[in-house]
Amino acid sequence: MNNESSNASPGAEEPNAMMQEIAPEARQKALQEELKGLISLVGVEPLVDLLLERAFQLGATDIHLDPRPNGMNLRLRLDGVMHDILHLDPEYAPQLVSRIKLIAGMNIAEKRIAQDGHFSNMMMEQNRDVRVGSGPTIYGERIVMRLMSDGSRFTSLEQLGLSDKQISAIEQATARPHGMILSVGPVGCGKSTTTYSCLASLNEATRSLVTIEDPVERRIPGVNQIQVDNRAHFGFVEALRGVLRQDPDVIMVGEIRDQETAHIAVRAGLMGSKVLSTLHASDTGATLDMFREFQITRMFLADAISCIIAQRLIRRVCEKNRETYTPDEVTCELLSIDPAEAEQHKLVRGIPADSNFHTGYFGRTGIFEVLAMNPSLRNYVVSGKPGRTVFEAAQEQGMETLEQSARDKVLAGITTPEEMMRVLM
């Protein structure tokens, strides 16, 4: 499901790590031995290719190369959690960093400042994009590679983890001829995946669709996609102004980062275009407060926003290795279960095994909070009520919160109370 990715990018989400279905093909120790053997035999260049291949197979969203006093630590982010994979001796670290920077089109001689780059690689019979970021630390240069999801695959709203009621609210918002649909949350929570899913549902020959992205994450047939380039002074603001003069029906803005972009996006939503975008905000109520910080007129804000989707990614219990148990009193309180009825609720937890990288979890799904704007909520916004008040009013009207969404997934045997607390507390 952020420009993130995830932010993650779901990474990834971000990236479509949300619904990753590729089973791990190597245990942690086996992967370590494989990489060690390769670098000792043939050097750094094949190591990069094998590392990327294994990372994609495991469903990793990020590869971290962290310098240490005695070499470099290689780590993978799997299902949102970091795992140590390998320690590289000092002699190999500079070679590995230089190799990655070279293929990413970065300046290998410049080590004093942060740099960004990217490259594409054929993995698993698909062209996979990799974003690269580098920067100096006290022990040397650090590299982080964000592994983008398969750009040819799209996740439907039904697959994201939304409830039927939430899907209905989003579909009603996308059916309107104009207005803003916002996906919000922290980096790597799947905002981009959700936004692309909404865009895919609107991608019809009868509409003119345009995206403005940094970078373009997925190539979509039938959609005009624009890559911003800040070095050429062509950012989101300049691109959005130009697109508004080109008769768009649907505009996807990769991310609203500043006041000027927010103003133009709101104006576009009021002028007859449907606007899809992402924003870094903790929940639906906080989103409204952020737009007030951007100094958007309350009346414009109330009229422009159709729907706000707040989300997180939560790990799924491994399907192959799991067990059931009866919740104790503390867990019952967390899940709003009557302790006297604890025996009626069988929860699940994973058993650490090779198939789940010894975590008990494999794959992720989304938990969501969907605020659909209606006349009463618009009145709250117009009258200047804070976002928390609007949030509470929406909850009273039946809006399912992030916490309720997570609780439902625990009771359904999808995740655990511990994972719920890790993500939300």
Automatic annotation (TrEMBL):
Name of the gene this protein is made from: gspE_2
Species whose genome carries this gene: Thalassoglobus neptunius
Record Gene3D superfamilies: 3.30.450.90, P-loop containing nucleotide triphosphate hydrolases
Keyword Repeat: no
InterPro entries to which the protein is assigned, alphabetical: P-loop_NTPase, T2SS/T4SS_dom
One example GO MF annotation: ATP binding
UniProt key word ATP-binding: yes
Name this polypeptide is given: Putative type II secretion system protein E
Bacterial type II secretion system protein E domain sequence ranges: 244-258
